[in-house]
Specification:
By secondary structure, this protein is α/β, with parallel strands linked by helices. The chain is built from 10 helices and 11 strands. The protein has a single domain, classed as Glycoside hydrolase/deacetylase (TIM Barrel), CATH 3.20.20.
Amino acid sequence: MIKNFVMLTFDLEEFDIAEEYGQKVSHSDQMTVTKTGTERLIALLDNHNIRATFFTTGNYAQLNPELIKAISLKHEIASHALYHSSFHKFKETDILESKNILENITGSKVTGFRMPRLKSFDHKVLSGWGFVYDSSINPTYLPGRYNLLHKSPLPYRENGLLELPCSTTPTLRFPLFWLAFKNLPIGLYAALCRRTLRKRKNLMLYFHPWEFAEIGDFKMPGYVKSPDGIELVDKLDKLIQNLKKQDAEFVTCQEFCETLEIAGESMKSV
């Protein structure tokens, strides 16, 4: 019997999104907001006894090594490049530097990568640096961002790397990303997840720890910041309970890759 796998993933980064809307966020607030949300998420995951993957920037890890080490004792730490903010000029070697930082802090190999803002990056380079998988593809159409409808919604291999696409619904390719979770009624969002899980046999969902802190006072659009805090934690709790009823197995991205390798499944574009 083929199992249904759910990957809960969190982009653990500096809280800088308000700066995209013109509000300067102090360094202290960037760290505190993210830490508050992260601690709430860890408590929720512990309550359900499930593991998740935290795509972490090297910068945030360097500034919060004890938190990252503690997370790594149960969950997977993967790379989210060195900085998340677009105000830092990106260098290709930032990715390798972030990998080294995370491995030094956790004492474990870092095998996964997600590019900030889901931008593309050369799979050959990532594979050469020792990454096993990438999860930077959202195979949908988002006006003003990207049109990736030509990409497979299922896991596939490309230039020696496993690509784990972010989940979209069958047929319409509606993205099940963080904004959909935040803005749709939980009943509808959970139903879309169940339908996708039945069809694809896996769910790759992604969120940000800062969403689960109180961010209502920051100058951002309502659809970005609300709901937040404990209300959003409760919403994720309901989603997890709902998916557990589908006999879903919650795994880290690395664990999911291992199931694919063991099963010898074909990962062709579909």
